[in-house]
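Hi all, posting the design record for the shared folder.

TITLE: backbone redesign
STEP: 1 of 1
STRUCTURE INPUT:
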């Protein structure tokens, strides 16, 4: 890196990047997301990623409001390429510096070349978008394209690598060099510092005991703010599409797991903000085999479903049955399918009591019990008692017992749900 003008930095051309992502930090990913969301033609972005990966982007000049580099085509043709970014106004800088100076942890993180996500969130709440968003890039290239071309996209991908190493590149684009920024933070921190301790010989305030201070502080605290609204849909993880498969990393599997994790986090959040959530028991974490069934239920790709089945020692047909059972009742539903258990004496007494309450003695159907499963001979119906005390309906199809509905609180309802005619 070379420096001349304190408000401009030039970074030497980076080597080719075969088989690696262009961003590792969250702010680097945010930068690329702004590029990918802004471009009207996704194919141009894809070509730009390939150009950047080949090492065709020359030295990158970074200055307030813009980036410049020479990008070469495969035939060696050089193109002057610029990407302009909106600078902050004086008022925006004042708000940002005020937020950063108010938290010593923010300054320490910046000095460690880390952008705290809390700083970005606080700044956005104050009306200062630290990271670019949709439409914040103004691409310009002498190849003649009016929107992003492979050259401007390649420049943006290369800058994501620079941002990973030094987030002050982003702040320079917004209008302040590192030295100027740190001087501003130091001045504000000094202004915010508490008054000096009393001189020797002057009695200091004895203060109050910590427990009294804590109680007084709690008494004056305002009520907690309301919970935020639930997002309309799960978030979309960034794509891991690279031209070359990284060594030892199954990109398709990682992308699927990221999407599944986002969907599960959304479901858990929806449950957490639902009325009465605090009164419900927290379910046990699923086992690895159970979680494989849950993931299979969310997978559209037949290859992913096959791999999950093989990983748990199930055939494809067995996994499809497990997915069906999971859909009717999650882990307890899966247990009703696969757990062939024998009830103890107390459990059987409760089952007989439920039986007597469900049917009059002369109306009770003839069922044959084997362990915790009651089968109606010749009708293709079966009900299973789960360890949690609920009754699960099953029907006979193609020589197999198939889950046919959610659990019922009594055996009569479960047997009716198991009717193949339904």
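Okay, here is what came back for every position:
SEQUENCE:
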């Amino acid at each position: 890196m070379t420096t001349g003008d304190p408000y401009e930095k030039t970074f030497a051309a980076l080597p080719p990047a075969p088989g690696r992502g262009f961003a590792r930090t969250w702010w680097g990913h945010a930068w690329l997301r702004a590029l990918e969301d802004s471009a009207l033609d996704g194919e141009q972005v894809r070509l730009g990623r390939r150009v950047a990966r080949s090492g065709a982007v020359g030295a990158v000049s970074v200055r307030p409001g813009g980036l410049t580099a020479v990008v070469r085509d495969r035939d060696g043709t050089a193109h002057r390429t610029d990407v302009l970014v909106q600078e902050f106004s004086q008022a925006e800088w004042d708000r940002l510096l005020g937020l950063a100076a108010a938290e010593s942890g923010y300054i320490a993180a910046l000095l460690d070349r880390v952008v705290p996500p809390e700083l970005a969130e606080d700044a956005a709440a104050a009306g200062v978008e630290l990271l670019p968003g949709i439409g914040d890039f103004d691409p310009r290239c002498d190849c003649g394209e009016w929107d992003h071309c492979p050259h401007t996209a390649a420049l943006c991908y290369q800058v994501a690598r620079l941002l990973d190493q030094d987030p002050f590149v982003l702040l320079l684009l917004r209008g302040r060099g590192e030295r100027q920024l740190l001087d501003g933070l130091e001045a504000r921190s000094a202004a915010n510092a508490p008054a000096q301790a009393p001189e020797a010989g002057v009695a200091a305030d004895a203060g109050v005991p910590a427990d009294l201070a804590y109680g007084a502080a709690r008494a004056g605290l305002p009520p907690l703010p309301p919970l935020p609204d639930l997002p309309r849909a799960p978030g979309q993880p960034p794509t891991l599409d690279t031209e070359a498969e990284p060594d030892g990393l199954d990109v398709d599997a990682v992308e699927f797991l990221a999407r599944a994790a986002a969907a599960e986090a959304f479901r858990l959040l929806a449950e957490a903000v639902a009325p009465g959530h605090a009164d419900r028991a927290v379910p046990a974490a699923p086992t690895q085999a159970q979680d494989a069934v849950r993931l299979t239920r969310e997978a559209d790709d037949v290859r992913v479903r096959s791999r999950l089945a093989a990983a748990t020692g199930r055939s494809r047909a067995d996994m499809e049955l497990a997915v069906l059972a999971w859909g009717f009742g999650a882990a307890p539903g899966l247990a009703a399918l696969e757990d062939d258990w024998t009830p103890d004496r107390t459990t059987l007494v409760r089952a007989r009591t439920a039986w007597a309450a469900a049917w009059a003695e002369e109306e009770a159907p003839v069922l044959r019990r084997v362990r915790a499963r009651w089968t109606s001979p010749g009708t293709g119906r079966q009900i299973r008692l789960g360890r949690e005390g609920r009754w699960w309906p099953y029907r006979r199809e193609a020589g197999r017992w198939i889950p046919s509905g959610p659990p019922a609180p009594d055996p009569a309802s479960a047997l009716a749900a198991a009717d193949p005619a339904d």
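COMMENT: The radius of gyration is 32 Å.
Let me know if anyone wants the other runs.
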